[in-house]
Amino acid sequence: AQSVAQPEDQVNVAEGNPLTVKCTYSVSGNPYLFWYVQYPNRGLQFLLKYITGDNLVKGSYGFEAEFNKSQTSFHLKKPSALVSDSALYFCAVRSNNAGNMLTFGGGTRLMVKP
Amino acid sequence: DAGITQSPRHKVTETGTPVTLRCHQTENHRYMYWYRQDPGHGLRLIHYSYGVKDTDKGEVSDGYSVSRSKTEDFLLTLESATSSQTSVYFCAIRPGQANTEAFFGQGTRLTVV
After folding, report:
1. A111/chain B closest Cα distance in angstroms
2. Which of A4, A7, A31, B39 might form a disulfide with A105, Cβ 3.0–4.6 angstroms?
3. What fold is seen in the domain A3-113?
4. What is the pLDDT of residues A12-62, one digit of tens each?
5. Which chain B residues are Cβ-neighbours of A100 within 8 angstroms?
6. What region does A111 belong to: left with phi over 0, alpha with psi -120 to 50, or beta?
7. Number of domains composing chain B
8. What domain range is B22 assigned to?
């Protein structure tokens, strides 16, 4: 069975500081990895994905994520946080040999303070 | 939101009544998913479909059934609603190519009293 762990329920960071939201995964085969963001009372919005190739993936709104196969991690990062980045972030994984099931982590609430 | 419409957006129903939630897409995507979102649990997959009349169970499928008679519609039915099914339900769609991401609807807030 595949799974995703987001070890931090909440991450607090000051505006202008770098941020990291952690994600580790377990999957058979090679992983397809995704980050989504959810603002209050909204659906999930796609941020970025890792399929293959470069371990550093760049996405929307200045976010990037680093794939580390040996540590089975896919941490979300941003060099300089904005107050408007405050939201709920979800990491998700799908196996390249299972095809269909997309499994999410429990989510991490990011709070950026002015 | 990527051509996905969920209906209704809000519903309050009584324990023991049947409830059907609808997900409609205009993208002609192959895959459709139903998730529920609960505090502390993130999103959990209920059922998904990989084509017309082709569906499979997710991790929390007990008490739910689905149907997909047309590419554009994926229905989630609670045969006899219980208070534990109070949740926010999200539909997602994904193209058939393996390296694609899923797109989510706005969600349906269901309260079972």
Report:
1. 17
2. A4
3. Immunoglobulin-like (2.60.40)
4. 999 999 999 999 999 888 889 999 999 988 889 999 999 988 999 999 999
5. 31, 48, 50, 56
6. beta
7. 1
8. 4-112
